[in-house]
Amino acid sequence: MSIQRKDNPERQTKSNYLWEDPPDEDKFSACVHCGMCLESCPTYLETGHEHQSPRGRVHLIKAVAQGRIELNAGFEDPIFTCLDCRACETACPSGVQVGSLIEQARGQIRKSIPLTGWKAAVSKFFLRGVFPHPNRLHTLGNLIKLYQKSGMQTLVRGMGLLKIMPQHLQNMEAVMPEVKDPVRKKYPEIIPAEGQRKMRVALLTGCVMDVMFGDINEATIRVLVRNGYEVVVPRDQRCCGALHVHAGDRDEGKRLARQNIDAFLAAGVDKIVVNAAGCGCALKEYPELLHSDPEYGPKAAEFAGKIEDVSAFLLNHGYQKPQGTVKTRVTYHDACHLAHGQGVRREPRELLRDIPGVEMVDMPYADRCCGSAGIYNITNPDMAGKVLDEKMSYVPEDVDLISMGNPGCMLQMAVGVRKHGRSAKVVHTIQLLDRAYQAEGESGK
Q1: Strand order in the sheet with 401-404
Q2: Which of 295, 316, 337 is the last residue of a domain?
Q3: 428, β-bridge pairs
Q4: Each residue's pLDDT tens digit, 113-128
Q5: CA–CA gap between residue 107 and residue 378 (Å, rounded)
Q6: How many domains is the chain partitioned into structurally?
Q7: What is the pLDDT of residue 13?
Q8: Are residues 301 and 199 in the same domain?
Q9: Whole-model pTM?
Q10: DSSP strand E in 210-362: where?
């Protein structure tokens, strides 16, 4: 890796971050380079290279701020090969917010070194042209549904046409879930609670979640109303912006954040429930994203105070333990942005243990990244594949289900199951709780 150094001593204190939202000096200065983060970092464990470690990246971020190295391609590589999994933050005794520093640095890089060619076209099409627009997302979902149900998928697979795609995309197509109707199209804006209403909550439907995993959103709604919560599905909500911020497009991330803040605060709800780990983490970090916005900074703080992952929400505010039996052996995978980003570890496991018939099997290193990391498994398939192989080595052999709380992880782990010849199915934790409630009716309880 080549990083151009600056030898002019007069420029040693002049930052090479020239745009809004540079990496926060208070954050990178907190790093004492102790190395406690090294064994938690997937890319360092894979490469052994210092610049692919959290403290190495923080050192580089600091060096750019001090004018000692350029904001160039040599700096871009280690910053964008980071999975932004936040495992280093859990390990760090100094509390260095590496994830925030990485995202701020990426924003500076994309201002200095914009994407070009096909990468720019793909990024513009999907990140700005599709994900922020629900109707376009639903159209994409309908096209995928047509592909699956018309026989076209069977034909394409049978003729071997998928072989023209890169292997990692072939793997994803092979485990693509059956696309269902999105909740935003299927349900009214307000779904009343069963029995006496305990609280009024909003549901973030998400972009990928509602298009690819609409059944998880449906299960979430059923569980919430079953437990006495009125559910609001704001029609003006948009993609959370996590993918944009991770990719360095902070301007679009901020625009989406402002729109979501307006949509959810106008809904008049007590809490905003999220069933996707990456989305929940991004929503909670809106105050930092909008810290320089005099109008939306205070609104972002109010908004973030309402965000709760669905598992934590149920444990914190009450739910009825199911009586229906789901006889199965389950292991649990900690999604990075749930465990490291939000500190939610105990709650999903408690929900699973409360289901009659569920036998929990511990997974060693359950909070190690699976390699999904938003769209990292698409942009960095080689490293993502190595991280996934390592993750699968920890998944117990004798389980029926692998439970988790993030759609990206579900797709990635499904690829791992198929690749390694496992028989376990991948499920969202809330789906198992929903299944137990449905089993009550089947058994007459």
Answers
A1: 358-360, 328-332, 401-404, 425-428
A2: 316
A3: 404
A4: 999 998 889 888 889 9
A5: 20
A6: 4
A7: 66
A8: yes
A9: 0.93
A10: 229-232, 271-274, 307-309, 328-332, 358-360
